[in-house]
Amino acid sequence: MIASFGAPLSTIVSPPPAVPAAGGPAAPSAVSVRGVSKAFRLPHQQYHTLKERALHPFRSSTYDVLQAVDDVSVEIAPGEFFGIVGRNGSGKSTLLKCLAGIYNIDEGDLHVRGRLSPFIELGVGFNPDLTARDNVAINGVMLGLTHKQVRERFDQIIGFAELEDFLDLRLKNYSSGMVVRLAFSIAIQVDAEILLIDEVLAVGDATFQQKCFDEFHRLKAEGRTILFVTHSMLDVQRFCDRAMLLDKGRVVELGDPTTVTRRYNELNFGRTLHLDTGAGKPAPGVRLDAEISDAWFESPTGERLPAVAHGEPCCACLEVRFNEPIDDPIFSVTLRNEVGHTVFATSTALDHGPTGHFDAGSTTIVRLRFENWLTSGRYNMTPSVARNGRGDATIDLRENLASLIVHGGPATGGLAHFPHGFEVER
Question: Helix/strand/coil (H, E, C) string of 347-373?
């Protein structure tokens, strides 16, 4: 079944299926996607003019099929901040455009409960020969606001975009960042329950991006549903309740942001081995060029530590066995707390430099010495070894291979308590 959409900004279709709420009755989904597929035909020969068509009426009409979205299913609850990630060409933007009604789908069902506001291509409909003042009036109405609402919200739109000094400047004289700021400021004024956000902040400066993210938090607190397409795994873990990873149009992973982020890194950098057993061992039959055989924490005197007091120095250690000769491998250590938040991460590429040549059959022990300013709690170590370069060509990575309990120290509520001092000036 192909879902039928009218104007993308005011789409209300039949009620979607219910999603069971934790500990309560089933609640209707804000967005329901079931078995949705979308393909594009790419002709081998293209006509660019009527003359070409007349001169070559029997030119080959064969084509390739690009399956942009392939049997995607997902239920998104009202008020959920949902991330959609994947490599370029994975179908993220196509899926959002199907939801927005820009594309018709080939197969499946789409159900949307509420009004949509797509942040997909900001500034569509802007007239570069008109001023910002005129474009706000025109674009606001195009996005579904009344003339009265545009007038009432005009100062707020311009103030958020920080363009008070450029109201009467034609848009063709604006920088790309100024245009995005104006377009975003208009779009967030639309009274929509569901926001579709597709990498629209990539050209904004860092200050404005943070301002937009603060606005996203406000919208989420108001119960808006947000579908967020991004390549930033940090933003996925920072903002999203759940996330979905697409690859070649298909769903590869759907779940919590940490799991999806790790799977995204696997697709990009080949990090797959740590998911095979979960026990710190490579999958049966897999022979790595370098293998992490052990990891632990120890005192400065070499004693292995299951626990350490706050303020006591210690070392994070990993043992690596080389099955093939490797030059200048990069060793990395990541520390996470019990809920999976990264509290510290470093590598020899940052703090050591070239590590030298290692022959096949050799073994090395790498020690990371650090001042233990961590507050009380359990911390897990994820060591990894990668080929020389940017550090993304991972050979072996072991999630939570060793743990350390830190005790004592002040209960500050933070993850670390650094040496510090106050000065009070009168």
Answer: EHHHHCCCCCEECCCCEEEEEEEECCC
Q: How far apart are CA 322 and CA 179, in angstroms?
A: 53
Cα separation of the two ends of the chain = 73
User: Between β-strands 250-255 and 242-247, what pairing exists: parallel, antiparallel or unpaired?
Assistant: antiparallel
Distance of CA 158 to the CA centre of its chain: 29
CA distances in angstroms from 31 to 110, 144, 173, 220, 271, listed in the order given: 8, 21, 39, 15, 32
Tokens linked to 170: 């034609």
Residues 96/196, Cβ–Cβ less than 8 Å: yes
105 pLDDT more than 70:
yes
Domains and CATH numbers, the chain: 8-116 (no CATH), 119-266 (3.40.50.300), 282-407 (2.70.50.60)
Total Cβ atoms within 10 A of residue 192: 22
The token pair that represents 269 in the structure block: 């950098």
Categorise residue 363: left if φ over 0, alpha if ψ from -120 to 50, beta otherwise. Answer: beta
Q: How distant, in Å, are the alpha carbons of 73, 146, 227, 345, 373 from that of 100?
A: 16, 21, 11, 39, 49
Does the pTM exceed 0.85? no
Q: How far is CA 397 from CA 37, 47, 104, 266, 325, in A?
A: 35, 51, 42, 10, 18
pLDDT in tens, 220-256: 888 889 999 988 776 787 788 999 999 999 999 999 9
Sign of the Cα pseudo-torsion (48, 53, 58, 61, in order)? positive
* 38, 69 Cβ separation under 8 angstroms: yes
User: In this structure, are residues 375 and 417 in contact, taking their beta carbons and an 8 Å threshold?
Assistant: yes
